[in-house]
Every structure is written in structure tokens, then in C-alpha cells.
Amino acid sequence: MATKTASRSRQVAKKPVARRKNLCAADREKVILETAIRFFAEHGFEGQTRELAKRIGITHSAIYRHFPSKEALIERVYEHVYLGRWQDHWAALIKDRSRPLEARLAQFYREYAACIFDYDWVRIFVYSGLKSFGITGRYLAIVSEKIIVPAVIEARKELNLPSPARVPVTQRETELFWGLHGRIFYIAIRKFVYAMPVPEKLDDIIEDATREFMAGAPHVLRRIATAK
């Protein structure tokens, strides 16, 4: 049912809208950006701006009065879709030692899933990774800095393992936490890329994933800490 609904919404989105003659500059720019987001989600960044203009109902040159290049438009898409949904409090949440790390991770991924489990977000992210437009790498650098590495540090603290001041965070440790991150994101891939059914109650799935992860991760982290 969800797949049919998404299909109908995409069909509607593909129809050219009436020509936008009386919009002010700010409103026209907003329309271009919002339509470009869905357009790139459907066609990837190989989609032509001439086709985008037809969908909006404006001339091709009108796009470039607001965005000097296709790359500039893609940059705005990145800022709007990815940076605009990032929550500053997530970094503090991971570092909040008044709560067990498992509870912090579960809350983060519940909130994160609510922000990114979206047709446009997921498909643009995948297309960017395939075509090297920089969106994927830049965004994952934020995830690494704000979530993954701090989570490793918090796990060490909880397990009484050496601090990063004594022993730098290792790639083996970060890969362990990327595994949890990837497991949850793959649900979105199944839904929005493969059009497969996914569980309706994501909160339960996230609780299961973080609980299972924290049941096994301490043993692995201790082995890494003692490895030579």
C-alpha cells in the first residue's frame, strides 16, 4: 500500500505545473528548489535542468537567474535537505553521561530515522554517492565527527577502557559503530530504493538493534583494547 501511494505521489510530481508568472523572486526560488529536490530524487543529478524548468513551468534561463549553475543548485539542495534536518542537540545527546549509552543511541536513532526516512533524502543521498557530487562524503563526515567517534569515546568511558588521550580511537572501533548506523539506514534503502516493505513500527526495530549491538559491542571493544 505504501509503495502504491509513493508511486502515485511521484506520478503527480512529474506533471508540469502551471507557468509561474506572478511570483516574487524569493517565492520563485523556493519553488525551483523544492521541485529540484524531487526531480533529483527521481532522476539523479544527471537529470537536465531544461526538464526541471519544464516541470516547474518556467523558462530554462529563469533557473539560472536564481542559481548561477547546476552545481550551485545542488549545493542548495544539500543545505536544505541534509544540513537543514541535522539537529544540533544530537551531539550533546551522545555525550550525556547521565544515561546509559544504549539509551542514548536508541533515542538518537529514533530521532534520526524520523528525519531521514524520506523518499527525497534517501534517493538523493544514494545518487550523490554514485556520482561523486560530494554530498555523501561531506554528510558522513559530520556523522563521524558528531556521532560515531563520540559514541566510541562514550563506550570506552562506560567500559572503563583507556581514554582517547591515552589511546587514540581506532578504525576498528569506529567500524563497529558504523555497522549499527548502516543497519538502521539500510531499512530506508530497502523502502525508498528497492521498494520493499519495511516494518511500520521503526521504534521497536531501533530498540532491538541498539540492544543487540550493546549486548555484543562491549566484548569486541575490550578485545580491541587488549590487541597488540
How are the secondary structure elements laid out?
Layout: H1 2-14, H2 25-43, H3 49-56, H4 60-66, H5 70-81, H6 89-94, H7 101-116, H8 119-131, H9 135-158, H10 171-192, H11 202-226
Helix pairs in contact: 2-3, 2-5, 2-8, 7-11, 9-10, 10-11
Explain how this protein is built.
By secondary structure, this protein is mostly helical. It folds into two domains: 2-81, Tetracycline Repressor, domain 2 (Orthogonal Bundle), CATH 1.10.357; 87-226. It has eleven helices and no strands. The longest helix has 25 residues, at 202-226. It is elongated. Residues 1-13 have low confidence and may be disordered.
Summarize, please.
Helix content is 72%, strand content 0%. The chain has 228 residues and is mainly alpha-helical. The chain folds into two domains: 2-81, Tetracycline Repressor, domain 2, CATH 1.10.357.10; 87-226.
Distance between the termini: 53 Å
Mean pLDDT: 91
What does the overall shape look like? Answer: elongated
The H/E string reads HHHHHHHHHHH
Fraction of residues in helix: over 70%
- How many H/I helices? 11
This entry's quaternary arrangement is single chain
